[in-house]
């Protein structure tokens, strides 16, 4: 099973021999306005940038280029919305027309290269059109996931300082309609930064109230607009900011640059996903997450595929056959989703009877990422579909896979629990606490040798120090991924989970630190700990343990309900705490650090490894007895 003497190995060696030449060769595959001659270079802040002397436009590559190549009548985008019973398709010509016109609308509103535009929208084609239109005029978009509450949106608005916010009147969840506009209004009230305008796309389900002068109607903007051409931009021009959870309550604005991003995504569509231009690629995710940015919007379009924008769920829209219906209807060649989506399907349809109803013969591969792929889901998918089930590992920060089974080079044998091997372009190392290299099979922190390849974050928006501090300062010459894991004798990478306070709930990345801030703000709470417990559907779910203030007269249930509502209101429904347990005290070290790991072990029924530094070991038994009595 060793990876030596394989096509992969020689491809990887090619990269190692001369990384800059390797990437410049990949860059040549794109239609630049000015071809780059420079690989990696450093700016004044000592941060790495790729292809600094090249000029391009990401929107041009994603649309105009394909039309120039004679692919204008190929489908670019398929919109399928079981929640609204709508379907719509766009050829490359049609998408180009819609994007150029909206880009003209942005220009009429005074949006210029470098201006930020926040996009708070559901999964409608207009959201994709807005992203591409921003790229066309050089505006930096920042898409905020529709499931986030006003406070979260306000934090992002204050950080990105956009000229404009683009929104829709509502999102449609299977059980309810979510009005976006009142949430945006509340966020704008909370934010210190004042935006010039909000452009509102009115959906037929709900008509939003527009505030005179500030709010503008999407359609009215289009009526006054003229199509606009793609603006040539330096490769280092920022394409977007995407906020992701860190260990603190302040999300990090991952900044992605145009040139490296386009090169990396084009390369990954071929190497990682083994796609051909003209094929149908479906990432069943949301444009609010990195998977949506990279593999609903930019990757498939830059590479000339047809992409699917699906406004629905894996189950209940209307049933667990939804994914298979979409595959049949649009002859999808590759499907990418999070393990949690397939766990939901498996739960509803364990014998895959709904799968048998559809012709999914177009489907060649299934890709999974976003969280650990558990063996039971992996085996079920393989058995029921008979397809290669490919686990791959990456993060918002990298924007594209770090480790995968490189099917575009060759399909390597798989190993359960492993995301296979580093993608050529990444040098992955396992380091111990002192920064020394771990031996094969020895667990440590997973780090990537600098420079990071093209397409990865180049900084945190407006905070280069935080970028260096969070990712580059721990180990000299390495990027710290935040994940722990090991590499085995055959060079296979096993990701074992986060080493920080980031958790993954139903494929959504959340910060326990941020949740703790909200829980601690409850007037009855003296102190608290939020941690993740294992869940058979969502992978992980957040649990809070709270100690109430002296003399608190409220019932535990009342406090729990208030905390739960507060989390939903301040972060969003996706962060909903599963259990809130009031306890007498929390386990701590003698220096006062809360032992969250012990709490997680206790709740998950694992062996509790109490450190010698614990202040009072009896706390653990006390909480355990209470947990068992309340949860058995
Ligand atoms: N806008 C507003 N609210 C949203 C939302 C959105 N875009 N997405 C989710 N929510 C809300 C839901 O309505 C739900 O609210 P409720 O508690 O009031 O019912 C809450 O957030 C939790 O939603 P979710 O995490 O989706 O859980 P669920 O139990 O409704 O569904 C799954 C479970 C597994 C079907 C669902 O989590 C899923 O499809 N997961 C896959 C996610 C995914 O693809 N992630 C990929 C990232 S790569
Ligand atoms: P996000 O930034 O939301 O994409 O989340 C990134 C994190 O999700 C990673 O740091 C990992 O902890 C986890 N993750 C993503 N893909 C995988 C995978 N294939 N296996 C295990 N964990 C994964």
From TrEMBL:
Residues 8-61 form the Acetyl-coenzyme A synthetase N-terminal domain. One of its GO terms (cellular component) is intracellular organelle lumen. Residues 514-593 form the AMP-binding enzyme C-terminal domain. GO terms for molecular function: propionate-CoA ligase activity. Residues 71-449 form the AMP-dependent synthetase/ligase domain. Belongs to the ATP-dependent AMP-binding enzyme family. This is Propionyl CoA synthase. It comes from Pseudoalteromonas phenolica. The lineage of its organism: Bacteria, Pseudomonadati, Pseudomonadota, Gammaproteobacteria, Alteromonadales.
């Amino acid at each position: 099973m060793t990876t030596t003497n394989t096509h992969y190995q020689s491809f990887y060696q090619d990269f190692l021999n001369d990384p800059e030449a390797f990437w410049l060769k990949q860059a040549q595959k794109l239609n630049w306005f000015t071809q780059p001659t420079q690989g990696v270079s450093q700016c004044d802040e000592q941060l790495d940038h790729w292809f600094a002397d090249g000029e391009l436009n990401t929107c041009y590559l994603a649309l105009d280029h394909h039309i120039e190549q004679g692919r204008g009548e190929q489908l670019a985008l398929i919109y399928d919305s079981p929640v609204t019973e709508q379907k719509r398709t766009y050829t490359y010509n049609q998408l180009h027309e819609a994007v150029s016109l909206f880009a003209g609308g942005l220009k009429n509103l005074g949006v210029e290269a470098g201006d930020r535009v926040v996009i708070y929208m559901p999964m409608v084609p207009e959201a994709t059109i807005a992203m591409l239109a921003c790229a066309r005029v050089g505006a930096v978009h920042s898409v905020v996931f529709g499931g986030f509450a006003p406070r979260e949106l306000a934090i992002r608005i204050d950080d990105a300082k956009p000229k404009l916010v683009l929104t829709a009147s509502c999102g449609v969840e299977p059980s309810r309609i979510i009005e976006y506009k009142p949430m945006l209004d509340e966020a704008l009230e909370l934010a210190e930064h004042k935006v010039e305008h909000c452009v509102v796309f009115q959906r037929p389900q709900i008509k939003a109230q527009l505030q005179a002068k500030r709010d503008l109607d999407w359609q009215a903007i289009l009526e006054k607009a003229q199509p606009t051409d793609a603006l040539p931009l330096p490769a280092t021009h920022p394409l977007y900011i995407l906020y992701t959870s860190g260990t603190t309550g302040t999300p990090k604005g991952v900044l992605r640059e145009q040139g490296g991003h386009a090169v990396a995504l084009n390369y990954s569509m071929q190497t990682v996903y083994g796609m051909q231009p003209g094929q149908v690629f479906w990432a069943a995710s949301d444009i609010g997450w990195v998977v949506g940015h990279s593999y609903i919007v930019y990757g498939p379009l830059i590479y000339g595929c047809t992409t699917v924008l699906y406004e629905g769920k894996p189950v209940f829209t209307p049933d667990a056959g939804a994914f298979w219906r979409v595959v049949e209807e649009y002859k999808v060649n590759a499907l990418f989703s999070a393990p949690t989506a397939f766990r939901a399907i498996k739960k509803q349809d364990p014998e895959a009877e709904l799968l048998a109803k559809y012709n999914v013969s177009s489907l060649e591969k299934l890709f999974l990422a976003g969280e650990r792929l558990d063996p039971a889901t992996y085996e079920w998918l393989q058995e029921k579909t008979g397809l290669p089930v490919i686990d791959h590992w990456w993060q918002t920060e990298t924007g594209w896979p770090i480790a995968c089974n490189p099917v575009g080079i060759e399909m390597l044998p798989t190993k359960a629990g492993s995301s296979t091997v580093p993608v050529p372009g990444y040098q992955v190392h396992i380091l111990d606490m002192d920064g020394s290299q771990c031996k094969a099979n020895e667990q440590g922190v997973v780090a990537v040798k600098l420079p990071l390849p093209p397409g990865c974050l180049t900084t945190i928006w407006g905070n280069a120090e935080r970028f260096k501090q969070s990712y580059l300062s721990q180990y000299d010459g390495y990027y710290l991924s935040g994940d722990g894991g090991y590499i085995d004798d055959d060079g296979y990478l096993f990701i074992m989970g986060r080493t920080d306070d980031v958790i993954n709930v139903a494929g959504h990345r959340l910060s326990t630190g941020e949740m703790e801030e909200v829980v601690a703000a409850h007037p009855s709470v003296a102190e608290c700990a939020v941690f993740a417990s294992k869940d058979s559907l969502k992978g992980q779910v957040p649990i809070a343990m709270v100690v109430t203030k002296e003399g608190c007269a409220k019932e535990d249930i009342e406090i729990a309900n208030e905390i739960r509502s507060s989390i939903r209101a301040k972060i969003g429904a996706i962060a909903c705490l599963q259990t809130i347990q009031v306890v007498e005290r929390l386990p701590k070290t003698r220096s006062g650090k809360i032992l969250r790991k012990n709490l997680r072990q206790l709740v998950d029924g694992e062996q509790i490894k109490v450190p010698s530094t614990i202040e009072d070991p009896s706390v653990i038994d006390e909480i355990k007895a209470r947990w068992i009595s309340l949860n058995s």
